[in-house]
Amino acid sequence: MIRGYDEDSLLLLSGIQHLAFCERQWALIHIERQWAENVRTVEGRQMHERAHDPWLSEYDGDHIVARAVPLVSRRLGISGQADVVEYWLAGEGVDGGAPLPGREGLWIPRPVEYKRGRPKNDDRDEVQLCAQAICLEEMLGAKIPEGDLYYGQTRRRQRVAFDHALRSRVEQLCLRMHELFDLGCTPPAAQGRRCSLCSLVDVCLPDLTVRPRSVRAYIRRQVGSDAES
């Protein structure tokens, strides 16, 4: 059972994606406050800026589109913002709807997260989207079965079902974020192919932390490279 968190203990919801990708990357960003840009982060930021217009909302009879929606879950200890939340009018006999101010009937929220690239081989995008849904459920008293990931390269949505396994994964990642944050601990790198995708690779220096006594070997390699050049 996850305990409740007070206002001062809330961590950024977006960090769950960093943690799912690499614990060291999460700690460098959220504990050491380090950041570096690459083409992927710049393109991703530009896409989010276009989606995050809090003054723009759309109504199409059976659904409402809201942007830059604030989110919080005291149960998970996270807060943040959803790119887009669609509210769909619940039909008769459909459970899980919630009332909206100034609107008749019950509405089922559906978070939509925008990503610059393509669907990934891991679950980092899915856990971020599911965390948004859990926040909305806690805030509105709704039940949200699914959401969408929109990828800029494919220009398609990918539907994500918020099943028990994915929800449990989100809860475990949130617990781990709070554990690392309370310890003030930056884990060693788990070096792999993903390092080439990370904008923080030059800050992280995975060769220095991936295995014992690698610092001496790293320096020896660097000195050798400088001598050859």
Task: Supply database-style keywords.
229 residues; Lambda Exonuclease, Chain A; 2 domains; seven-stranded mixed β-sheet; 8 helices; 38% helix; elongated
The appropriate CATH architecture of the largest domain is: Alpha-Beta Complex
**N-to-C terminal Cα separation, in Å?**
57 Å
Q: Please compute the radius of gyration using only Cα atoms.
A: 20 Å
- Strands, total number: 7
Count of domains: 2
Helix content: 25-40%
**Mean pLDDT level:** 83
Please identify the structural class as seen in this structure: alpha/beta
> What kind of sheet is the major sheet?
7 strands, mixed
The string of secondary-structure elements, in order, is EHHHEEEEHEEHHHH
Low-confidence stretches: 38-44
Please report the first level of CATH classification, the CATH class of the largest domain.
Alpha Beta
Report the principal-axis shape. elongated
Which percent range describes the beta-strand content? 15-25%
Count of DSSP helices? 8
Query: According to CATH, what is the topology of the largest domain?
Result: Lambda Exonuclease, Chain A
